[in-house]
Amino acid sequence: MINSKMSNMKKSNELSRVLIKGGTLSPALFYDIISFAENFGNQYIHLGSRQDILFSCPMNQNHEHRTEFSLQKKGSAVQNIVSSFVCVDILPSTSWLYSGIYLKVLEQFNDTHQLRINIVDPKQNMMPLFYGQLNFVASETANYWHLYLNLAADKNLQHWPGLIFTDDIAQFARQLEKVIIQKNLTCKELLVKEIEKIHLQKNTLTSDEKIILPEGFFPYYEGFNKVDGKDLYWIGLYWRNNQYPIPFLKELCELCRKTNVGKISFTPWKTLIIRDINSKDKMYWDELIGRYGLNMRHSSFELNWHLPLLDKLALQLKQYIVSKFDQLDIRTYGLSFSIQRKIDERLTTIVIRPKGRFPFLGSLDFTRSYTIEYAMDFNPNNNKYVSYAIKLSKKDLPASLYELSKKYSAFQFVHYNTQKLAKNERTESKAFTVYQCSNCHSVYDERYGDQLANIEAGTPFQLLQEDYCCQLCDSAKSDFVETEMWETV
Predict the structure, then answer these.
(1) Which domains can be identified in the chain, with CATH numbers?
(2) Which intervals hold domain Rubredoxin-like (predicted)?
């Protein structure tokens, strides 16, 4: 039976995608997906840059599992919903943003989308902030999100006027996508007018707050790591060739079940992360990793690369550059690299682009040359890239990248000292009082009131009616606790 399926698979020669909403799923569902892939003769699965799972599978059959997970042809226009859920407890985060908030948002998305939608925390530096077309970015105001549109060909970001409430994100995205696609609009001002017609804009909160971009872009996602302040660990798994063996993954899912690990997450770096591993269970994970002989100590040269899926030439070029880096003893801490052909795929500090008149010839194309771009201020979240070198031969690449790494070091020196000077000149901080829900940590700030409860700005908490409740979790007014917050003036 399996042989016939393998034959059918080879004839179709198609990669299929399983969309993993928000980049997180249960071990049980992951087990079902990889078992499904195994039934079609796959020995491995691959991970995509938008937190999806890929494997070979004929798409000309009615798959009974489609009710359990979304199976799409690789080239389909359907997009996955991406989130920074994976970063919770691993990287710095916005104070009110925790796992439950992400899950609450993701549950709202029940339909497919043609635009890339990202749900991200601006404090972390693993997930690029503006890699989507509709980017919902957490604000400092609890349960409200900025919206950045990345629709223009020149990649100029458009900041939506006002903050979007947590409960409205999916509906807002659905209606906005409908207008963008049906009316072919990309201008923010025109889109705002269209959204006002369907009365969604009334649920936004006015704010002039600006996002502070996370500094550096050096995502760490491998090996055993302890969660700060908790008796828990997380583990990141990386395969150089992006071929994750199904037998290992099935055992991993079974171990998750036995040790009560509830979620498996994926990163845009095509790696998977398991969180909430109890310290008493660490030895079982050590045993599994040791039995399969996994390398858990790759160098930073190796880790901070992003390559096109299953591109052998890109992998060979990466291996060549990494070996040259090692020989030249180049410091690349804080830098990330990618080899990309598509202009719109930029999520690393440095982008290398192969150029050739006859790309179908592959390694036999002797006209091939390379260009190098780098992110403005060496921060990919700026969404702006600068051309550094063009028409380079393969042998010229390492030396050019070496010079660019020195340029980065010089920039870091100036940037650090400028920040230090600004910090020394900063004036005192000012305290202000808010009332925080003791259950979900939502904040009632008298300066803003509560728009959703029709409470005007400036209304003291003591004057709220006794039946006032938290707009996120419905906790009573008595569950709010007076607390002090600080802001720099």
Answers:
(1) 2-19+32-73 (no CATH), 301-423 (no CATH), 429-488 (2.20.28.10)
(2) 432-483
Mean pLDDT in residue range 169-175: 93
C-alpha dist (Å) from residue 473 to 7, 177, 438, 440, 480: 53, 28, 10, 7, 12
User: Average pLDDT in the 287-293 region?
Assistant: 91
Nearest-CA neighbor of 96 among 125, 130, 121, 128?
Answer: 121
H helices present in 13-93, as ranges: 27-38
What distance in Å separates the CA atoms of residue 103 and residue 85, rounded to the nearest whole number?
8
H-run or E-run covering 172: helix 169-183
Residues in a beta bridge with 369:
355
Task: For residue range 225-274, list pLDDT tens digits in order.
Answer: 888 888 899 999 998 889 999 999 999 999 999 999 999 999 989 999 99
> In sequence order, what are the beta bridge partners of 430?
487
Record the tokens describing residue 45, joined without a space.
């699965």
Q: Among 91-100, 277-286, 402-411, 420-429, whose mean pLDDT is lowest?
A: 420-429
Residue 254 contacts by C-beta under 8 Å, 6 or more apart in sequence?
27, 31
Query: Residue 23, class by beta-carbon neighbours within 10 Å (0-12 exposed, 13-18 middle, 19+ buried)?
Result: buried
Least confidently predicted of 397-411, 414-428, 439-453: 414-428
Which amino acid is residue 209, in one-letter code?
A: E
Please state at what angle helix 188-197 crosses helix 169-183, rounded to 10 degrees: 110
pTM above 0.90, yes or no: no
Element of type H or E holding 322 = helix 312-328
**Location of structure tokens 């798959």:** 63
* 3-state secondary structure (DSSP) of residue 112: coil
Amino acid at residue number 203? N
